[in-house]
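Observation: inputs received (chain + zinc ion).
Thought: call the complex predictor directly.
Action: predict_structure
Action Input:
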Amino acid sequence: MANSVTSLPFSMYHTVGSRSIAESRFAWKIRRGNVAAEKALAIVVRGTDWSETSRIATLFTREFGKVRALAKGGRRLKSNFDVAFDLLTVCEVVFIRKASGLDLLTEARMNEQFPALRQNLPALYAGYYVAELLADGTQDYDPHVPLFDAAIQTLRSLEVNRDREGAGVASTRSLTVAVHPEGDLPAAVSAFELVWLHELGYSPRLDACATCGRERLNRNARAFFSPLAGGVLCPECGPAVADRRMASGEALESLRVLSEGGDAPQLPAESRAEVRQLLGYAVSCVLGRRPRLLRYVDGR
Ligand SMILES: [Zn+2]
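Observation:
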């Protein structure tokens, strides 16, 4: 198995076109003003080369939510920064807020890294998937402390994951939550997705019809499921909803237990795959597109 980031199917880094660099730099110069520096604990969720020496880092901070900041000299080997702005690096940062929306990073000290992820490609993909959901699912300066904490817990749990079968998706273990130190990879990802959905206001309702509120009496029964309608749907409401899918009682029950932070029951491989499909579908509906890394996480 490939174990290096160089085997990634696409680059997570993008170079900004020269024209827009010149224009944006000018805009940055005329808009800068004296604003107090902010301190935050941050996960690097995206990096963009800005110039020969500088880089724009997209940071998901615990205190402020998503922040995009220019790191002047951030591409030099010997820079003012203690970190290379590698994806998923956790750092303590100081930055100056700018009206332009692109803040200025003045300090960055490494707090935590997850080097074991680079020895395990499925776990690395899962980590990058977490970064993608943080970068693209949240708005600038919209803090979500539980989401930040869940991301850190998920990355730690992915690091201890042994990926026993090497495939990431197929695992002999039952679904467990991300905080479980021996949690398997799909369960860790699923638990994170449920926190992400919850924080964005799309936590699926599973105990009653999301449209009419009728209680689901038989939890083992199949039911319609619609992420945008808000969860499970009764037989009367379901057919009217465009993005409905049919879900098994087992998969829905696993979602319910996972969303409450518990250990889901042992499931056959088919139901585990269904849980992944339902959550991938829900995340895609909320994001408005399929996350780029989802196919590498789920192997399909
Ligand atoms: Zn209904």
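Thought: report the result.
Final Answer: Residues 27 and 100 are 8 Å apart (CA to CA). Residues 1-32, 163-182 have pLDDT under 50 and may be disordered.
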